[in-house]
Structure formats: C-alpha cells, structure tokens
Amino acid sequence: MGVCLFNAKGRVWLGRRFGETGTHSWQFPQGGLDAGESAEFGALRELWEETGITIAHLSPLGVVEDWLYYDFPEGMAPKKGRLYAGQKQRWFAYRFHGDASHFNLTTHGSQEFSEWKWAKMHKTPAKVIPFKRDVYERLVIEFTQYATPKS
C-alpha cells in the first residue's frame, strides 16, 4: 500500500531510502499488508511506521481505485527475505495538517528513510527508481488535483 501526503502548499512528501544516494533514491511511503488488514489501514500503518505521522494530522483526499503493479528487474536480489518478484498496491492521498516536528523517521523497526522533503507532484517520477516510474506517472495523473495550495 502507498500514501501520497500533501501539505497545505500542495507539495507531496518524498523520503530518501535509507542507505541510498543519487537521483533515483526517493519514494513515497509504501509497503505490504499484514494479515487481516484493509488496504487503507495498511497504508496508514506504513505511513506511521515510516514517518511517525498519525491520523490525527491527516484528512483523506482520494484513492486510486485500481491496484497498481511493478516488477523488480531481473537479477535484482530480494531484500529482507522477500520471495516475490514485485508489488501490487493500492494508493491513497491525504492532506497533512501538521509541521516538520511531527515527522519521526525512526518510529518503528528498521528505518526506511534517511531524510525527507516536500516536492512538486509532477516531478516525482524522475526521482524514483526506474522500475517504479510507471506507478508514479499514474499517481501524478490520479492525484495532481490535490497538489494545489490550500488556504
């Protein structure tokens, strides 16, 4: 599951994957479902685990109704004991009603992100690892309507 988190200025949250550098080391909070979770609950859990943000600072904006898919490139070694070849995800958009002090990248377990920034939605596909780019281009289409400043 994945989350696009928009601030009041219409920018979207991007995190740099922990231990990685370079142009394509950024992504939105995302992850898999635990047993018995709904897609939205899983997305919110992943958001909290990876950023420290809780529903107290969110309001829902939208969801991509389709499942979005990407495959890992051939020869890419699975991480953390993963046995699968890609991911199938539902994506959710939320408005963030907080400030930088609400983020904690070490909230839970192993750290996913080393740093974060607010970015323009239409520029995010160029910042992600290439095999995820199609998903991010679809997210731009689906969620650009939320990338406008709010008063």
Automatic annotation (TrEMBL):
Domain Nudix hydrolase: 1-141
Keyword Methyltransferase among record annotations: no
Cofactor list: Mn(2+); Mg(2+)
Keywords: Hydrolase
Entries under Pfam families matching the protein: NUDIX (PF00293)
Family note: Belongs to the Nudix hydrolase family.
Designated name of the protein: RNA pyrophosphohydrolase
Organism per entry: Algimonas ampicilliniresistens
Lineage, highest ranks first: Bacteria, Pseudomonadati, Pseudomonadota, Alphaproteobacteria, Maricaulales
